[in-house]
Input
Amino acid sequence: MDPLSDSPSGGGKAEGEQRGALAAVAGQVRSGSRVLVAGAAIGDLCRQLKQQRRCEVDGYELNARLAESAASWCRQLRAGSPEGLLADDTAEPTFDAVVCHGLFEWLQAPEPVLARLKAALRTGGAIVAAIPNAAYAGMAACLATGEFRSGE
Output
């Protein structure tokens, strides 16, 4: 079994690169932080943050089916449109970090969402954004062979 997913290892180069990318993103977050993962997908990043970085994780995911898989790694998980992310929250800033994983490429107007994410940060907090690089040769190869999976 792969230590970062519930699937057997050997999923190929693209899967290994995905795991490495998630580890790199998780490594940007201080251990013990309270984190919002916007783009929780099936929960691999949430799991890394919770198990390896000992973070308290909340999640947000566009796809309700994927959100079900991520729920076990999150203190709280919401599903819905990314434009609605934190739209109903009026509480004080509560997160040390917000990790946007596969979020911004789905937004037509990212500015309002980014403003709400910034407002949700405690003093000294940070936003970590992971945005796919479609020009990357590995991504281009996956697209050319039909192996591209965007979290589904």
